[in-house]
Amino acid sequence: MTAAAANDVSGVQYYFHNVTDANHDSGWQDETIYEDIGLNELTEYTYQVKARDKSVNKNETAYSTGVSAETLADLAPPEPNQMAWAFEPNETGPTTIIMTAVTATDTMGVEYYFNNVTDPNHDSGWQDSTTYEDSGLDSNTTCTYKVKARDKSANQNETAYSSSASATTSNQFPELQEQWTFYSIPLHDGRVWNNGANTVGIDFENQDDDEIALRIGDYSGQQSYKSIVSFDTSVLPDDCSIISVTLEVTKGDLYGTDPFTWGGSCVIDIANPYFGTGADLNSTDWEAVATADSVATFSSLPGPNDVSMISTPFNTQGLDNININGLTQLKVHFTNLTNGDSKFDFIGLYSGDCLNYKYRPKLIVTYNTRTPTETFYSIPEDDGRVWDVNDSVGNGSDWDDDGDIALRLGDYSGLQGYKTIVSFDTNDLPDNCTILSAWLELTRGAYAGNSPFNWGGSCLIDIASPYLGTGEMLEAYDWQAPADAVAIAAFLADSGTEYKMVSTGFNSEGFNNINLEGKTQLRVYFTVPNTGDFEADFIGYYSGEQPDNFRKPKLIVRYKRN
């Protein structure tokens, strides 16, 4: 609207009065034009105008006559159209993400809508604020968002959505530091050597179990020894961040001159997953290219036999090539191949074939993870062996045994069919955890007759929460007592004396029946109870009565905290 120009020697101001809604009066202004904004659409408003001079007295005219006008319908969305981000989404904690849209303009006023594309249940709804903090999200979760605006007219004209932007909530739980000790695999470790005339391997040995099974140094014909050790590092969690690795070997006999005096550096090369063409030892492993060379060293020879040699910590290339999906292989050797005297000058080391596990090569890996691993040892008074007498009904039990046949799988001379019961107090697992993986480990002891892996069918594991039969204590009825879930995992092959027999991973029924509030009991057995030959054909294992934790049955559980 425009008022007629008024004249006064002292100057003039104008006042436009919205008779319908005085909140929209102009106030005193120098301009003769006034545009009233923020009005309701399709509404009639009446206006009057007056003037005053700029003298001390501010003398006013009378109001003009009232004149009315009706607003039009609003058909235009706010600007900008397409909406945009002032600050893109950003996590503010384990369950919250915050974001801010640019301020849009419209004469009718503006409101904003933040759309969680990943989970529309977390949309903001229409709001006046340009900022939205999405809460109640899962930790360690990525969400994608876009934002739009609309005016407050009857038509509620909307802008186009902004571009999408994403943010990830932080993990609710800090990383934990864990350490895992891996023992060298007998089948895949040993010594390799060349012929002294060139740098090509000519032979290998991988079955010795004595104090010179592995060798580093040289031999009488100028052959140069290198030792290969292999570790199944697939047990490491998928999210692990490896922070430290060392190799530990045990010194056996020293022949001739100590290679640390002539051999240069004693280095460790790494291969992910193995040297050469396969995991099995081969003469060509001598010269086979490593994934990374010299990732660590041994600095000196300990004096006495049967004492550990511990490497320097692995460098970054060494850490990066620990294979969390399978085999990690290492090659230990001196940089000077021989000392040229045609004599035995080597250091003997124990291999993975050594019956004393303490002397076997060990790879010690320290890592951070948010999926911790808990190891439970079998409860001595609740584990043992049970048997039937060819009738599928439990006839006897024995729990008070700490020898190498305390637990048994297979049969006995009177057609008894053995089953093994192991029990674990899994109450220490967090109440609301999600179990990601679980497996059972038994340490093999002595055996009698024909291995049941040759005749016994499948070696299966059943689970009960909290126990089989009528109570925690071992009883003959545990032989046939109903389980909460059957065949949740299996043992696929014999491990050999004094080696760990590791089950397959538990299935979902196994996970669901691990008791977070008490004990979990497992039953291990062959599907064919006996051979019918009236001879003892069984494999023995150590029980929870065994004082050495290495040999005790272990239930290993990896989980996520919620």
Topology of helices and strands:
Elements: E1 12-18, E2 44-53, E3 67-70, E4 85-91, E5 97-101, E6 110-116, E7 131-134, E8 142-151, E9 165-168, E10 176-183, E11 190-194, E12 201-205, E13 214-218, E14 224-232, E15 241-255, E16 266-271, E17 292-298, E18 308-310, H1 316-320, E19 327-334, E20 345-349, E21 362-369, E22 373-377, E23 384-389, E24 396-398, E25 407-411, E26 416-425, E27 434-448, E28 459-464, E29 485-491, E30 500-502, H2 508-512, E31 519-526, E32 537-541, E33 554-560
Antiparallel strand pairs: 1-2, 2-3, 4-5, 5-7, 6-8, 8-9, 10-21, 11-12, 11-14, 13-14, 13-20, 14-19, 15-18, 15-20, 15-21, 16-17, 16-19, 22-33, 23-24, 23-26, 25-26, 25-32, 26-31, 27-30, 27-32, 27-33, 28-29, 28-31
Radius of gyration: 40 Å
Question: Could you name the CATH topology of the largest domain?
Answer: Jelly Rolls
Instruction: Give the overall form.
Output: elongated
Low-confidence stretches: none
Number of domains: 4
Q: Could you describe the largest sheet, including whether it forms a barrel?
A: 12 strands, antiparallel
**What gap, in angstroms, lies between the N and C termini?**
65 Å
Mean pLDDT metric: 95
Number of strands: 33
> What fraction, in percent, of the residue positions are helical?
under 10%
CATH architecture of the largest domain: Sandwich
The percent range for strand residues is 35-45%
Derived from helix and strand composition plus strand pairing, the structural class reads: mainly beta
- CATH class annotation of the largest domain: Mainly Beta
The protein's oligomeric status is single chain
